[in-house]
Structure formats: structure tokens, C-alpha cells
Amino acid sequence: MDPWFDVARSLERILLENARALGWDTEAFVPEVRTADPRFGDFQANGVLSYAKRTRQNPRALAEALARSFGESQPEAAAWMDVSIAGPGFVNFALRPEFLSAWSKRFGTAEDLRSGAGARFAGKTWVVDFGSPNTAKQMHVGHIRSIIIGEAICRLLEFCGAKVIRDNHLGDWGTQFGKILYGYKHHLDPAALERDALEEFERLYKAADSACKEDPAALEEARLELVRLQNGESDAVALWERVNRLSIDKLESIYVRLGVRYDHYLGESFYRDKVGRVYEELTAAGLAETSEGALVVFHPDHPRFGKQPFIVRKSDGASNYASTDLATMLYRVEHFAADGIIVVTDARQNDHFEQLWLTTRKWFAATGRRLPEFQHVTFGTILGEDGKAIKTRSGDPIRLEALLDEAEERSFQVVTAKNPDLPEPERRAIAASVGISSVLYADLSQNRTGDYVFAWDKLLSLEGNTAPYLLYAGVRIASILRKLEPSQDVPEASAAVVETPEEVALARKLVAFPSALDQAVSALRPHFVSSYLYELAGAFSSFYNANRVLVEDDAVRGRRLLLCRRTLLVLRTGLALLGIRSLEAM
Ligand code: ARG
């Protein structure tokens, strides 16, 4: 890997080495290299200030010593950047145009961008559990965030060299199946099942539920269905399997539209024969105890979970969400040899996952197992334009499929307005892609932990931080390159060094890609990539408005073509990381 792919990382490393050579206490000194305000440079090291404070020294003198040692230890790097001291003790690094152009030449393919990316995940196996809805139920808007964010995280980790296993931990087991099986036997509408299995299962559940409320005989029958299923009686199991099979088929048709594909569908039911070991080991390790007939784990070292139990087996002996999730932890480590596990759900499940992880840590320590990394990736709520959780006009949750249909339909209007002469099938195809991308991007452009307002006009707009804006920026660059005559082309190697302020600004933005990627991957927050792409497209637009590309002078034309090509590469690579397909025309 070329150390200068990620300039911030390299600076971080060099500054730490230099600090050591200067005799600083490198336990206490963290360089804290960050992207700088462009007026002052490309990167700044902020860490001298807190180090000076901690060691009661003059920050300015320390910053100067560090800057001087940079020049002495790295004469080659020092020739690429201007190092200066600002304020009370910030060290600023401004990349020279020679470096900026060399960087663009050096990293010219998606493979180059990938090979330089974050080492933390390279060669590691990560299981990502996302989407994970309950079967026999329709997905509504609320389900989309886990799918979109989960898929983007998978792509980011894969880009950094991880082996990613996408696992859909379906809620495919539980007491609801007594009523679903009862409903299936008494109320099934085969034509409706054919049309939309999930919609029909939901209706069957509701029909059974009201029958059970009115008629004790129905209630008893549904209860018996559940008992028969739990006892493994073959006809009940076969019907339950059919419900799940049809559910997954229908879910997959939606995943395909979103560009998502799973390696496994290991739902809760998969673990129901794997919980016995969990009970035994937790009990043997003295972690679990019986309380009011249930098996529970307390965490006396925790402010709340010392009193609030983690119920791992219900008092009727049945397993639950906690037991199956504990078995899931073990399976992912034993079967997939997972180095890391990520679960993507909304923040309402925080307590569950905190207790799960606390329990797993103690359990694995007691049994001498290797502990994987674990991250519960959470997200906020999608709001309607009234600022409340988004609903249809009649107050029902919006079906995910209906939302995607509406996205395609609305974007068809946008595409038609822009390209009235394109044949309709082409407009439809573009609209399908733009519509879905707009929905994905609206989510991924927001810091995931916050709520966001879902507004059609905003997310489909060609202006602002939207998918259509970024896709259109790419289309524009692609069309410049398409129209290029072979005789006008200039080999990249002979492109001159960037010169005009807009060229320099764009080239600097390109060099900032690795930092954005690194931020997104370290925090598992894809919006760092989105914000970056939006800024990149803005820098391109300013460049393009002020600098004609196809000028006479070969050297100037060469460096501008290089910028066009590299911007397109980084833009497309970044969009692909978010699960967004780029277009040739729009
Ligand atoms: N099925 C759950 C739900 O709908 C999400 C499952 C998340 N994954 C897990 N291992 N618990 O809320």
C-alpha cells in the first residue's frame, strides 16, 4: 500500500515517530490529524495543544519543534507540503500543487482506491445482521433504514478488504404462529396469497386474532396449533415452513429492487435447538440464576441491569429473543469464525443489545472463548413533513413497497421533464434507478443516529445534497469524456500540474477521499461518504464553470481531463459504496 494514499494517516504516523524522537511522552501525545479549513491548508494536527497542557509546556514551542523535525526527518514529504504553525499551536499542512497532481495520477483505478483503504478490516470476517424483519408481515417504511444502512456498511467493509457475511436474522418463530396457522386453515384467500403473500399473512393474522377474541373455541384451536408446531408435528411444521418460504420470496423481491442480497437467512427459528447449551453454560458459569421460574442474568456491575434482569428463558420454559440471540453470538463465532459482528436495528433495542453484549463478554471469558468485536449500529426515526413519525393520510404505516413504487413514479415525472424526447422505456428504466437511489441517498446522507424528514420534493431535487444531483454530476462528466475526440486526449502521465484556484480546490478534494472513507468506516456512518461526495461534486461544478476543459494548450487540457476522469472515478466509487448505481445518461 502506498503510504501517501491516506495523507492524514501518514502524517499521524510520522508525527508520532517524530514526537518519540524528540523525547515526548508518546503515551500522552495523540497527533489528532484532521481535515483543515481549506483557507489554512489540507490537514491540521491539533494534538499538540492538549499535550502541552498536560505536560505544562509552551504549545507554540512544541508545535515549532514538531514542524522542524518534520522537515528534517521527511525531506521528500516536506517538499510536497508547506508546514506552518497557526494559533496557539496547531500544525498546518498545505499540499503543494505538485503533490496534488501526482496523487491524481498515482491513484487512477477503483482498485487503487480500494487497496489504500483502512487496514482495520482487511482480511477479517464480519457478520452483518441487518434488515431482519419478522416474517408473515409486510415491511413498512420503518424497515428501510436497517436495510439501507446495513447494506452500505457491508459495502464499506468489503471495500476495505473484509470478508462480509450478510445475515438476515428473521423473526420467523414465536407465539404469533399459532394464530397465523389457524388463520391459514380457516380464512385463506388463495388469490390474495398469490398476489401478495405478506399482505395476505398479515390479514390472516388479524382475522385469527379477532376470531380468538370473540370465540373461545377459536382461541383454543390457535393455542393447539402453536403447541403442535412447538412439538414438531409434521403438518404444522410444513405449514409454518410454507409461510416462511413465501414470506422470504416476497421479501427478496423488495431486496432486489434495493440492490441487496443476503448470504444467509438464519432466523430465530434456526437457533431454537441451540439454546440448551446457552442455558447450561450460563448456569455452570454462575452467570444465570432462576427467578420466578425464569432463567435470568443480572449485571451487578451495571447501574440498571443490576436490578433489571436479562431474561434468557421464560418461566414456561420457552426460549425468547435473548436466548436465540445468545445462541446466535456463539454460532457466528464458531461457525463463521467471525472476527466481528454488527447488528443494525433502531435505537429502541439498545437495552437488549447492551445486556446481550455484557452477558456474552462474561460468558465467553468464563468458557475461555475468543471474544469477537461487536457493534450495535442504531438509527433514528423517519419523520413526515409534519415532524411526526411518517404515516399515510389515514394514519397507517406506509408500506415499503408502496414507497418504492411512488419513488419510481415521481422520478419518472422528473426524468420526463428533463428528457421529454427519450423513448418511454428508457425513461422508465432511468426513473426506476433514480427513484430508488433517491430514497437510499436521502437516508444515507443523514447521520444515522438522528431522525430525518422524508420529503419527496427535496430528495428528488436536482439541486442540493441529493442522489439526482450527484448522479447528474456524474452523467455530465461522462458526457464530456464521451464527446472527446481521440486526437484531443492527453496521456495522464503528461498532464501538467494543477494551477487555477478551481483546479487546485478540486484536486485537494480528491486527495480528501481516503479521510472521508476512513471516517465512515471507523464510525460505521456512511454519511461521511455522502457529505464528501456532495462537496466533491460542488468543487467539480465550480471548476467546470470557471475552466474550459477542451482548450488548445495540450498541457492545460491534459490536467483538466485528468481532473474530470478522477472526479468521475471517485464519484462513482463513492456512490457504489452507498449502494447507488451510476448512470450513463439521465
Ligand atoms: N427481528 C427483529 C425486529 O424486527 C430484528 C432482529 C435484529 N437482529 C438480532 N440478532 N436480534 O426488530
Describe this structure in words.
This protein is an alpha/beta fold. The protein folds into four domains: 7-95, 2-Layer Sandwich (Gyrase A, domain 2), CATH 3.30.1360; 125-170 and 267-377, HUPs (Rossmann fold); 176-258, no CATH class; 402-577, Isoleucyl-tRNA Synthetase, Domain 1 (Orthogonal Bundle). It contains 23 helices and 13 strands. The strands form four sheets. Strands 1-2-4-3 form a four-stranded antiparallel sheet. Helix 20 packs antiparallel against helix 22 (527-546). It is globular. Bound molecules: arginine. Arginine (ARG) binds at residues 129, 132-134, 169, 171, 325, 328, 343, 345.
Number of self-contained structural domains: 4
Count of extended strands: 13
* The top level CATH class name of the largest domain: Mainly Alpha
Ligand inventory reads: arginine
Please state the overall shape, judged from the principal axes of the Cα atoms.
Answer: globular
Specify the helix fraction band. Answer: 40-55%
Q: Tell me what the CATH architecture of the largest domain is.
A: Orthogonal Bundle
User: How far is it from the N-terminal to the C-terminal residue, by CA?
Assistant: 36 Å
Report the sheet with the most strands, covering strand number, pairing sense and barrel closure: 4 strands, antiparallel
CATH level 4 superfamily of the largest domain: Isoleucyl-tRNA Synthetase, Domain 1
Secondary structure category = alpha/beta
Low-confidence stretches: none
Strand order of the largest sheet: 1-2-4-3
